[in-house]
Amino acid sequence: MTKLGNLIDKYSLYAKRYDCKKKAYILTLENEQVVLKEKRKNKKELFSYLDSKDFRYFLKPTNIEAEEEYEIYPYIKENIKKEEEKAIDMMYMVSLLHNKTSFYKETALDDKKAIYEEITSRIEYLYYYYHTLQDSIEKKIYMAPDEYLLMRNMSLIYISLEYAKNKINEWYEQIKNKKSMRYVMLHGNLETSHFLEGDNAYLISWDQARRDLPIYDFLTFYQNEYQNLDMNTLYPIYNHKYPYTKEEENLLYTLIAIPRKIEMNKNTYNKYSDIYNFVVYLNKSLDFLSKQDKSYKKTNE
After folding, report:
1. One domain, residues 267 and 221
2. By the 8 A CB rule, do 235 and 292 touch?
3. Which DSSP string corresponds to 10-22?
4. HSE of 81 in the Cβ direction (CA atoms, 13 Å)?
5. What is the 3-state secondary structure (H, E, C) of 223-252?
6. Which of these, 115, 244, 287, 297, is most buried using a 10 Å CB contact count?
């Protein structure tokens, strides 16, 4: 019998109906519905910590005390809302999480220097990578559609990298002489599908939760949802409730600006689609930065 089958037998979860949503199983029992999800890590300590900070907007597995390979959650019937409304509510929830769990930790100069050097090395590598890629494509007599799309938008890559280089230098100058940095408990994988609103509201899927700099939650949310939502509306809502320091803003803006490395795959359709999405990210990010960063125009003169 499978491990999931063992769990169903152990807790008598004999269902009239089984549904699968992403990596979770929804079981319709006689009088209720439950969700079974494979356990990636033990979250007992995490949930105890959130309880101690008076943050109660999470779902706790009913079998949290047991050493099981699957977690059992109550099924939450969601209210019908537009994604934009749901995202706004989520921003309030995340700002509350960060306010409840904020703390300052003394941070050595070497630790701040390590962040700076990792990011500047990544920027330098991407400059080299895209210049080399551009040279290679320009030598071709006929460009493929994906190559032509990339070449038409190559300037966006260099603008983004130059902006990121300026911002990370600014961040380092601001942070290097400060004794401490602010940390929070991060959710670690924010997207609207990980926020449920029924009779109560909950953040779910805490498998990547960790203590780290607060900007990483919004960064992840941005990268997961930039195509679906208006970040120029959502970021001010979150930032009003949980204001970033100037150096935190500069680090966030740096990481949003850095373009990912495009891999030129063999499948032509996938290549074009991938580059199209890449260009959308560049355009949306530069628009976001130009509206949120008051020094953007000055930086890019």
Report:
1. yes
2. yes
3. HTT---SEEEEET
4. 18
5. HHHCCCCCHHHHHHHHHHHCCCCHHHHHHH
6. 244
Q: Are residues 149 and 270 both part of a single domain?
A: yes
Instruction: Confirm whether 92 is domain-assigned.
Output: no
Structurally, the chain folds into a number of domains equal to 2
State pTM to two decimals: 0.92
Integer Cα distance of 184 and 206 in angstroms? 14
Q: Which two tokens stand for residue 248?
A: 């935190």
CA angle 218, 254, 151 (to 5 degrees): 110
Whether the Cβ atoms of residue 79 and residue 201 lie closer than 8 Å to each other: no
- Report the chain's C-alpha Rg in angstroms: 22
Structure confidence by residue, pLDDT tens digits, 52-98: 999 999 999 988 888 888 889 998 888 888 999 999 999 999 999 99
Query: How far apart are alpha carbons 205 and 188 in whole angstroms?
Result: 9
- Nearest Cα residue to 73 out of 40, 38, 42, 31: 38
Q: Tell me which residue range forms the domain holding 182.
A: 100-299
H helices present in the chain, as ranges: 3-10, 44-52, 83-101, 109-138, 145-152, 154-175, 215-225, 231-241, 246-257, 268-292, 296-299
| Domain co-membership, 155 together with 287 | yes
